[in-house]
Amino acid sequence: MEERKERTWKGAVKYLKVAAASTLMASIGSAYTFDTVYADTNGVNNNVKIEEIFNQTILSNAPFKDVQADFWAADSIRWAISYGVIKGDVNGFFRPNDVITEAEFAEMIGHFYKSLEKEITDVATKEKISWQDATYKVLAKYRVPLMGYKDAFYRKSPLTKGLLAQVLAYTNGQKSDLDHAIYYVLDKGIVVGKSETGKTIYEKFGHKDHLTRAQTIVVLHRLYNTGNRDLASSVIKGKVEDVNKEIQLAEAQVNKEVVEKKEGVHVVPVSQPKVESAQVKATSTAKKVVTSKTSSKKLVTPKKPLTVKKAPASVKKPTKTVKKPTTTVKKPTTNKKPLVIRSEVKNAAYYDQKVGDIYRNAGVSFKALDTGFGGYSRDGVVNQYSERERQMVVGRGDKSYKLAALAMERLGYGDSDAIYKALVKVGTDPNPRPIKVGNLTIENTGSFLGIFW
Question: I need a surface site. Which of 14, 81, 222, 409 has the fewest CB within 10 A?
Fold first, then answer.
């Protein structure tokens, strides 16, 4: 024992450096058992154990202040630093458990594919724009399926597993629709599924689940290990310079199959003006609207004149009672009013007027769009409302729950107290189950909660 104590601090550190340099570094901390060996510090015995020296000199060399050396994704994070995918913030933090946004993921993709990295850097330098703006500008030329090309609202939105799968499948030369993308990443072992008990491939994969920054780095590390380290040749050949045109094509790819499965409607934004013009031209007769080739299944307007025509017919039949037809005539007029009002008011101004003050008074950044709104803050508040997707994404935390509940009450979805209590219950229950609140369903979607209607 005395002989062991004679080891100097310098000798112990030298021994540890040799161990760290070897390929056994990853396994030493867990598989190797040290004897209880002590070391002197400058000739004075302080009873410092060798395993403590190991922790101080090697394991304490964590990649970031908030990422310990034994963190589950530490190896992937170290790889990401060495490969130039991430740098962390100015304070030396990585925030591994924070939910990653689309913009953060886009920048990681820009650094991962080195040909993109050089092009993005050149664009940022030449045009004197931020690296993020340059990233989106370059990715648009390659038609990478993202949503934040023109709207910062989507850049701040949480990244879903479905969108990540679409981007990785597309950049590796595969089909970018959600079905093919999911099968591609699962087959490659890049992303792991959520549950085997799901009824559909979407449920098994968890395409709406959000990813943390650490999880995303692990996925990119796996992709790197498969040997796919640059854009597919098909993607490079398809590069164009007309960015504005390609932005529409890129955005149209995102979750297109999800929209089809959920709503039964194939979204093709370019064709919508044609449908509207055909609808206006055919308003003179209902038959023309029904038989017109340009009119799609979406056209519901022919049904209105048909129902109105039935009302006078019912007036002719009863000669004794005139009150019945008058009531039937009034019904369609009352039905028309809310439809007209909803089409007029469901826009950015409407959402700003309805719920904007809730978020501003709470010191939360608020953004209103024609399709919904979002509230975000640095202390973890996330409220993302989408009328098109019929859902609100709610970040975890009491402040997020309260703001979401107040906003949903303002929009006419129910009592804020009931919604808030349901959010708290789902958010804190270790085995959460969906809770019904009126027409709303509140579920645990992973890192976030979801309100669906």
Answer: 14
Residue (of 180, 177, 176, 171) closest to 223 by Cα position: 171
Q: Tell me how far apart the alpha carbons of residues 287 and 302 are, in angstroms, rounded to a whole number.
A: 8
Angstrom distance (rounded) from CA 103 to CA 148: 7
- The 3-state DSSP composition of the chain as helix, strand, coil percent (nearest 5) reads 55, 10, 35
DSSP state of 402: H
Residue 47: left (phi > 0), alpha (psi -120 to 50), or beta? left
Residues linked to residue 101 through DSSP beta bridges, in sequence order: 158
Cα three-residue angle 338-339-341, rounded to 5 degrees:
60
pLDDT digits (tens, 9 = 90+) for 185-231: 999 999 988 777 778 888 889 999 999 999 999 999 999 999 988 99
What's the rounded Cα separation, in Å, for the pair 223 and 216?
A: 11
- The residue type found at 409 is E
Whether 431 and 425 have beta carbons less than 8 Å apart is answered as: no
CA separation, residue 350 to residues 97, 99, 342, 346, 375 (Å): 35, 29, 10, 6, 15
- DSSP class of residue 160 equals B
Cα→Cα distances 107→84, 113, 241, 357, 385, Å: 11, 10, 20, 33, 25
152 is written with which tokens?
Answer: 């910062």
Q: Residues 95, 96, 97, 101: what is their CA dihedral angle, to the nearest 10 degrees?
A: 80
151 vs 147: CA distance, rounded Å: 8
CA dihedral over 202, 265, 387, 106, signed as positive or negative: positive
Do 372 and 388 meet the contact criterion of CB atoms below 8 Å apart? Answer: yes
Dist CA 8 CA 39 (whole Å): 5
Q: How far is CA 373 from the centre of its chain?
A: 15
Look up residue 321 and give its amino acid.
T
Cα(449)–Cα(393) distance, integer angstroms: 6
The 3-state DSSP class for residue 283 equals coil
Whether the CB-CB separation of 138 and 250 falls below 8 Å is answered with no
Query: 13-44: per-residue pLDDT in tens?
Result: 444 443 443 333 333 333 333 333 344 444 44
